[in-house]
Design goal:
mainly alpha, 2 domains, 5 helices, mRNA binding, Fms interacting protein, nucleus
Length: about 210
């Protein structure tokens, strides 16, 4: 009866012990009075059985060897895969550490404080979900800071535009005033000139 190797699930050939015991029995004193021919026939059958068991044992050994080699190869592949995963894990850990130590520009940007942010930011930028997530909160604070700076920049540009318009109006008014002053000065000079000439013109009329 074939045996089953529970370790590798390989069928093993029957044990030759029973055949060997039968051969030993043939040469024992119990068979001294038996017919030689029948003993030879019996011995030949037992030897044939023993050779068959030997062939089965060799075949089982080869099968077991191949199974062991396949299992070793699979184990080597698994070990190699594990080493690759460990290498990738260490690589990712190093990259994560680099990211943690990376000094980003946003760290130097002056932001609204938490209280000011809660007062000024719109509701959709300070929901409970956002406030409970440090990463999302920082992204929204940066976004709000950008919106505020853009709004203040628009106000500043509008103020500069209005200032330029007022300067232009002021310059225009000053130009008008200078023109009016020039005209007044010109009229005044002309009037004075007329007054100076009037007595000189009156003297010939008096002598005549």
């Amino acid at each position: 009866m074939a045996l089953l190797d529970s370790t590798n699930a390989v069928l093993l050939p029957p044990s030759p012990d029973a055949v060997v015991d039968s051969l030993r029995e043939l040469i024992s004193s119990a068979y001294l009075n038996h017919d030689t021919t029948s003993i030879h026939i019996r011995a030949g059958a037992l030897f044939a059985r023993l050779k068959a068991l030997n062939r089965s044992a060799n075949s089982a050994a080869r099968t077991h060897k191949q199974t062991t080699a396949d299992a070793r190869h699979e184990m080597d592949q698994t070990y190699l895969g594990l080493q690759n995963l460990l290498y990738e894990k260490r690589h990712l850990e190093r990259e994560i550490e680099k990211c943690r130590q990376f000094a980003s520009t946003y760290q130097d940007i002056p932001l609204y404080g938490p209280e000011e942010y809660m007062e000024r930011a719109p509701e959709e930028m300070r929901t409970e979900e956002i406030l409970n997530n440090e990463h999302s909160l920082m992204l929204n604070r940066l976004s709000f800071e950008l919106q505020e700076r853009q709004r203040l920049d628009r106000i500043q540009k509008e103020s500069l535009r209005q200032k330029e318009e007022l300067l232009k109006e002021s310059k225009a008014k000053v130009a008008v005033m200078d023109n009016v002053k020039t005209q007044i000065d010109s009229l005044m000079k002309k009037k004075v000139g007329d007054l100076v000439q009037s007595p000189a013109a009156a003297e010939p009329m008096a002598t005549s």
